[in-house]
Amino acid sequence: MMRYNRVILYLLLAGAALAMLSPILLMLSTSLKTMDEIRNGSLFDLPHAPSFAAWGKAWVGRCTAGECDGMGGYFANSIAIVLPSLFLSIAVGSITGYALSLRQVRYADFLFAAILIGLFIPPQVTLYPMIILVRTLGLFGTTGGVILAHVVWGLAFTTLMFRNFFRSVPADLIKAVRVDGAGFWSSYWYIMLPMSLPVFAVAVILQFTYTWNDFLFGLTFAARDSQPVTVALNNLVGSQFGEQEYNVNMAATMLTALPTVLVYLCSGRLFVRGIAAGAVKG
Questions:
Q1: Splitting the chain (282 residues) into consecutive groups of 10 residues, what average pLDDT does each group show?
Q2: pTM, two decimal places
Q3: Interacting residues of 117 by C-beta distance below 8 A, sequence separation 6+
């Protein structure tokens, strides 16, 4: 009986995995076909002579936003946006989360609730006030303006994650550290930071995915020459001029999604450990 239950479980898991992977497999198959194969064949047909020519054209040769330099330059823009946003939102969120977990600050619960509200307000609602703020600071139309928007919106999420994790640390450990003479910064740097590496992995994966896949902030706050890869992908796929090269479009989509997949694959175990440690629990 146990064997049959296990077989059924594996079949269900395999079916769920296939359902999730089937769009990706179709995209990959289409990106390896020629346009003649796409016109004359079925969507589900495998490529007769697989070729990465469409991938190369998507990277360097496809016209995007009036320029024919492909997607490569926009990848550099996304990296310039993602890395500072990731570092600042996680660094500040971990510090504020630790401070709020101690509850030694007056009105700490009120401050935490105020930060938490940021998780439930859609960015579209405050987009216009954010534009006014970024413009007043002289950052509108720059990479710095996009970074500021991502840090502000990522801070509520990272603060929640780190605060919940640090609240699960035994209070006796914090008291022992204080008895030994460690202050706030010493206890954070030497005790809490090494303990929270799995939580950092969760924060890095989720924040990287959100920031890399963002379209709204990149379109709104960045200048044309500093827009992220998601804006370039939209311009490429949504072009109304010339022939729609579906193999190139699929290759560009795969290239855009590849960094987030690689980040997850490289830190998947830490991600699971972070969730198991209560990184996203209330």
A1: 79 90 89 86 82 87 59 89 94 90 74 80 86 92 92 89 86 81 84 85 89 92 89 78 79 90 79 60 46
A2: 0.84
A3: 156
Q: Show Cβ contacts of residue 255 under 8 Å, excluding neighbours closer than 6 positions.
A: 55, 58, 59, 71, 75
Residues in CB range of 228: below 8 A, 6 or more apart: 74, 77, 78, 81, 146, 212, 214, 215, 218, 222
Angle ∠(94,123,167) on CA atoms, nearest 5:
25
CA 45 to CA 172: how far, in whole Å?
Answer: 63
- 110 burial level (CB within 10 Å; 0-12, 13-18, 19+): exposed
Token pair 């020459």 in the structure block, residue:
225
| Cα(280)–Cα(157) distance, integer angstroms | 10
The Cα 229–Cα 139 span in angstroms is 20
DSSP annotation of 142: S
Which pair of tokens denotes residue 239?
């072009």
CA distance 144 to 84: 9
**Contact between residue 111 and residue 173 where contact means Cβ atoms under 8 Å apart:** no
3 state DSSP class of 164: helix
d(C-alpha 167, C-alpha 174), whole Å: 11
Angstrom distances, CA of residue 240 to CA of 84, 212, 243? 34, 25, 8
